[in-house]
Amino acid sequence: MQKLIEKANVLMEALPYIRRFYQKTFVIKYGGSAMQDAKLKEVFAKDVVLLNYIGIRPVIVHGGGPQIGKVLTQMGKKPTFVDGLRVTDGETMDIVEMVLVGKVNKEIVSLINQHGGKAVGLSGKDGFLIEAKKLKITKRSVSQQPPEIIDIGMVGEVKSINTQVVKSLENERFIPVIAPVGVGKKGETYNINADTVAGEMAIALQAEKLILMTDVEGIKDKNGNLISTLTAKEAEKLSSDRTVSGGMIPKLTCCLQAIKNGVGKTHIIDGRVEHALLLEVFTTEGIGTQIVLN
């Protein structure tokens, strides 16, 4: 009986959060181990379906770097990166689109639907959802010469988001699953960083939450301790004093931009933990790092 009571208490702990987030939009960046481990994929799909059934509006933006790399290797193309971004020529872009839109996206949609959800797969081309432009990378010159512009091919940045498609699906209780592929004014295809797309999508939708699923616990202090909550000012300080480094910097930058542009809260959580989404959203302690404006 005591175990049953404990289960009831868990549900009651979640009640205030369920009430607070009813009809609110959560943009979730799905990537890392949670996309590759079979059990974690099942758990993620069930968590998303649960969020949807209790009235929360999840919007999924997914990555797919390892899957793209695997196919490129099988086809004899050696991946090349500049500042962490994949150099994407025309042939590589075709493969990226094939893997992200044709394979990874449909697998996620299928898994969510198998567990009772109503997911719909999209890319930035659908309904002109993500208008993109070519990303320009500059390299500073040691002399007084102008900065060198590095061409990394069909890699883009978000120019604008057309929210009409997503909002229409949300209103009918569908779950949008978005591949981070954008379209240029002339119909050209661009590969875009999934964290960036998630952040821009959260801003455009004025989401209640932006949640980035990663393969780390969250943001840690200089002593390696997990920081549960950060204000924007505190987060900027951690970046400037290099407490935060490497791959966490763009994620932190993405979160800061989101909360400064109307998103309620941002979260960086460990997708390797089962039910990471539910534990972060519906418990007082949470499991990752939440970043708030003030």
Ordered list of secondary-structure elements with their pairings:
Layout: H1 2-21, E1 25-30, H2 38-53, E2 57-62, H3 65-74, E3 81-82, E4 85-86, H4 90-114, E5 119-123, E6 130-134, E7 137-139, E8 148-150, E9 156-161, H5 164-171, E10 175-179, E11 181-183, E12 189-191, H6 194-205, E13 209-214, E14 229-231, H7 232-240, H8 248-259, E15 265-270, H9 276-282, E16 289-292
Parallel strand pairs: 1-2, 1-13, 2-10, 5-10, 13-15, 14-16
Antiparallel strand pairs: 3-4, 6-9, 7-8, 11-12, 15-16
Instruction: Please provide the count of β strands.
Output: 16
Form type: globular
Q: Determine the N-to-C terminus distance.
A: 43 Å
Strand order of the largest sheet: 5-10-2-1-13-15-16-14
Major sheet attributes: 8 strands, mixed
Characteristics of this structure?
8-stranded mixed beta sheet; alpha/beta; 40% helix; 16 strands
